[in-house]
Design goal:
With 365 residues, the chain is α/β, with parallel strands linked by helices. The protein has 12 helices and 13 strands. Helix 3 (79-91) packs parallel to helix 4 (107-114), helix 3 (79-91) crosses helix 8 (231-241) and helix 10 packs parallel to helix 12 (348-359). The longest helix is centred in the last third of the chain and has 25 residues, at 263-287. The model has no long low-confidence stretch (mean pLDDT 97). Bound molecules: pyridoxal-5'-phosphate. The site of pyridoxal-5'-phosphate has 13 residues, from helix 3.
């Protein structure tokens, strides 16, 4: 199966490790096992495959993140990356029409393309606060569309679709009998209103929600994600899943359960980091006219426009060489002229000061 280069992953694999200041990150200071209140009994657990589709304890913990999901509506996957892929493999066939809201995680258009689907990209606009315009979206989704792909809260823009707008999107897809895949890996990180937005799996019988331990719960090294949706779809996904997962590690399953049982403590810690990052970013933008952008209302990333004339990949390469600061070029997100910045990164403040000084070498345009 041929598939496009996964641009952000390639960029990060190549450049993040060499950076002293890594602002490409989308995670919030990962936790260690010692940060979790685990029981020593875990050291006696036999390392078999464990519960193939995820333990009851884990599924019951995941269930508490939703209004009306039951363990049979949930399957556990290798991160959200595994979850998204399983949804595409289970739902799509060559010739199907897919609408993907971009910028987003590249899986959401490159996997459907690789399966031979007709993919239409709906670009969010900065002047709309990076939120979908209902009329435009309605026009793009047709009776032929099989799946709409969303990422809410959004990576890279940090926008959060308000619940009333999300319900309007659901209505549009319902009228046209279209599935929605909502990648909700940043769900629980809203800065305005309630931390958790509504989940499409709770709003619509053809709504599929993907979640993960990587962002909201600061445990990307566990490689635990999940899919929630209609039982017949989950059964179909489990059929595909047998060929690519078997089970997630019994250790990962256990620590994910502990973390979800303690998620309020994790949220308290993470919101301190997020709020501090947002304040630093806001102050920096106010004093750095070479960059502009919308302050995120959720998630961990911001998409910033730069006001000088250089391709984003060249700018980011030069910045890294000169200042050892890694940013993600907008081109890797189909957003030339922008850079993505992870505002929960360590040493954000000194890194931003270095970017400001370095940007002074370019003529403002
Ligand atoms: C929107 C989105 N979906 C999925 C993933 C993959 O997450 P995971 O680590 O759970 O596989 C990421 C990682 O950055 C992401 O930003």
């Amino acid at each position: 199966m041929k598939i496009a280069d996964f641009k952000i992953e390639e960029w990060m694999n190549k450049y993040s490790a060499g950076a002293e200041y890594d602002l490409t990150t989308t995670c919030i200071a990962p936790l260690s096992i010692n940060d979790l209140p685990y029981s020593k009994e875990i050291f006696n657990v036999k390392l078999g495959y464990g519960d193939i589709e995820g333990s009851n304890r884990l599924k019951n913990n995941i269930k508490t993140l939703y209004k009306n999901q039951e363990p049979e509506n949930i399957t556990v996957t290798h991160g959200a990356i595994g979850a998204n892929q399983l949804v595409f493999l289970s739902l799509l066939e060559a010739g199907d029409e897919v609408v993907s809201v971009v910028p987003t995680y590249q899986q959401h258009y490159s996997i459907p393309e690789s399966l031979g689907c007709k993919v239409k990209l709906y670009f969010l606009k900065e002047e709309n606060n990076w939120l979908p315009d209902m009329e435009e979206l309605d026009r793009m989704i047709t009776a032929k569309t099989k799946l709409l792909c969303l990422n809410n809260p959004n990576n890279p823009t940090g926008s959060v679709i308000p619940d009333n707008k999300l319900k309007e999107i659901v209505q549009i897809t319902q009228n046209k009998n279209v599935w929605i895949l909502s990648d909700e890996v940043y769900r629980g990180l809203n800065l305005m209103g309630k931390p958790y937005s509504e989940s499409v799996a709770d709003l619509y019988e053809k709504g599929i929600s993907v979640g993960s331990m990587s962002k909201t719960y600061s445990l990307p090294g566990l490689r635990v994600g999940w899919i929630t949706g209609r039982v017949d779809l989950i059964n179909e996904i489990n059929h595909q899943r047998q060929y690519n997962t078997i089970s997630v590690s019994i250790l990962d399953d256990y620590f994910a359960s502990i973390a979800l049982e303690n998620r309020e403590r994790i949220a308290e810690r993470n919101f301190k980091i997020i709020r501090s990052g947002i304040n630093i970013l806001r102050n920096w933008l106010a004093e750095t006219p070479q960059f502009s952008g919308i302050i995120p209302t959720g998630g961990t990333t911001a998409l910033l426009k730069y006001h000088f004339d250089i391709p984003s990949r060249d700018f980011c390469r030069k910045l890294l060489q000169s200042e050892k600061v890694a940013l993600l070029p907008g081109e890797t997100l189909e957003m030339e002229g922008y850079v993505r910045l992870g505002f929960c990164a360590e040493n954000l403040e000194p890194a931003l000061q270095k970017i400001k000084c370095f940007a002074g070498n370019f003529r403002y345009s």
